[in-house]
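For the sake of transparency, this paper describes our internal protein records without simplification. The record that follows is passed on verbatim for readers who wish to inspect the format:
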Amino acid sequence: MNSFFPFLDIIILGLLALFLGFRLKNLLGDRSGYGEDLNNLETYNKKKPDNNNVINLNNKKINGEGLETLKKGDPNFSEEEFLNGARQAFKIIIEAFVDSDIEKLKPLIDYELLKSFTKSISEREARQEKQFVDIISINKLDIINISLNDNVASISIKIESEQIKYTIDKNDNILDGNKEVSEIIKDKWVLERDISSNNPNWKLVETDVVND
């Protein structure tokens, strides 16, 4: 008689556990349905196209020469505004180079040209030399060539300016130029911009002296 009651207790507890299991399933739902949703999401992510590989067929590469070609690629281009900007950039870049101001040069010139400017500045400072430039006037500023290569516009300009420029050593002796007499200097600068970019700024990529 005593051995029967423990067995009866086990049966009652088992039935109670089974009842609670069904109740919990009705209240919380079957986990297998949620698992199927996760599998579907994983499958979708695998099938979803990679936007980095999507090619926009409307983006055409523009190549050619001349102002009309540039305006086809960039209808907002204004020759007058470009020349005014180039005039200001000419002064800023020369002054920044003379003052060894690399930070001011960075947004205005190409990376390769910046390395060349930085090297020249470092060598000048190592020799303890100082350069002085006073731009008295810009007499002429003309566009001499326009070309486009894969949406990169390149404009060559000729700048004729009157300057007083000279270089002194650590003892203030003049090494080059004249601090009293001005001279006419003719430069050729090349500026570039990717016309497919939202960035409207042009960067200086090349400088040269015109001898004519």
Notes: The helical segments are 4-28, 31-47, 67-73, 79-98, 102-105, 111-126. The chain has two domains: 4-47, 64-209. The CA atoms of residues 62 and 72 lie 9 Å apart.
